[in-house]
Structure formats: structure tokens, C-alpha cells
Amino acid sequence: MSINFDKALGIHAQALALREKRSEVLASNLVNADTPGYKARDLDFSSVLKQNMPSGLNLSGLNLERTRTNHLAPPELTLGARMMYRNPNQASLDGNTVEAHVEQAKFAENAVQYQASLNFINNSLAGLMTALRGE
């Protein structure tokens, strides 16, 4: 009998990679807070969750396809998540959409969620080790 790590770890392994990429995106936003015209970006996790739901629960089974060169391109994907622009609460005169307090809060929230996914993976692996040892 073989161990299927995808089933054992669930979506948390992919979530860990997405959280890491999101921290890079949020850090980039913070670094460019004073760059004129810079647009704040973020990853859409709900798109990834919808893709990884069981087929009976997935409500958005539509695939985008460009049939003509004049059509809009599908959204940019990063590790399966859509890269989106953030709408600012208060627009800056220089066109920059980064709001430092919002980005800092999102970064802290992402760090907590990253740690939660990491703890879940560690606990799952510890449970597998316990089962393999026969304890």
C-alpha cells in the first residue's frame, strides 16, 4: 500500500506555495508605495479553491479561450491564481494605488495563513510518521 501525499496534505501544499507568492506580490506593493503610476496587485485565492473543489461543487467550469486576436486575453495566472489589481479606497494624485496600511494588514494576514498551512502540513506528516511507526 502506497501513501498518496496529495490526499494526505490536501490543498495545503498548494496553498503554501500560493501564500509564498502572495507575500512576494504584497512586498512588491509595499516597496513601490512611492512609485508614481504603480498599481497595487494581489492574488485571487477563490479562483484556485473553485478549481480544486470536487466536480459536484465547482460552479465555474467555464474555460476562457481566445478565438480571435482582437479578443481580450484571459487573466494572468500565477500558480493557478488570477493576478488582480487592487482598487484603492482613496486614489493618489500620481496614479499610485498602493495604500501602505492596507498592504501591511494584508501582508500580516497572509503571514498568519502561511503559518497555519505550514502547521497543518507538519501535523499531517507527523501523523503519517506515527502511523508508519505503528505507535
UniProtKB/TrEMBL annotation:
<dbReference type="GO" id="GO:0071978">
    <property type="term" value="P:bacterial-type flagellum-dependent swarming motility"/>
</dbReference>
<dbReference type="InterPro" id="IPR001444">
    <property type="entry name" value="Flag_bb_rod_N"/>
</dbReference>
<keyword id="KW-0969">Cilium</keyword>
<keyword id="KW-0966">Cell projection</keyword>
<dbReference type="Pfam" id="PF00460">
    <property type="entry name" value="Flg_bb_rod"/>
</dbReference>
<dbReference type="InterPro" id="IPR006300">
    <property type="entry name" value="FlgB"/>
</dbReference>
<comment type="similarity">
    <text>Belongs to the flagella basal body rod proteins family.</text>
</comment>
<keyword id="KW-0975">Bacterial flagellum</keyword>
<comment type="subunit">
    <text>The basal body constitutes a major portion of the flagellar organelle and consists of a number of rings mounted on a central rod.</text>
</comment>
<dbReference type="GO" id="GO:0030694">
    <property type="term" value="C:bacterial-type flagellum basal body, rod"/>
</dbReference>
<keyword id="KW-0282">Flagellum</keyword>
<comment type="function">
    <text>Structural component of flagellum, the bacterial motility apparatus. Part of the rod structure of flagellar basal body.</text>
</comment>
<feature type="domain" description="Flagellar basal body rod protein N-terminal">
    <location>
        <begin position="11"/>
        <end position="39"/>
    </location>
</feature>
<protein>
    <recommendedName>
        <fullName>Flagellar basal body rod protein FlgB</fullName>
    </recommendedName>
</protein>
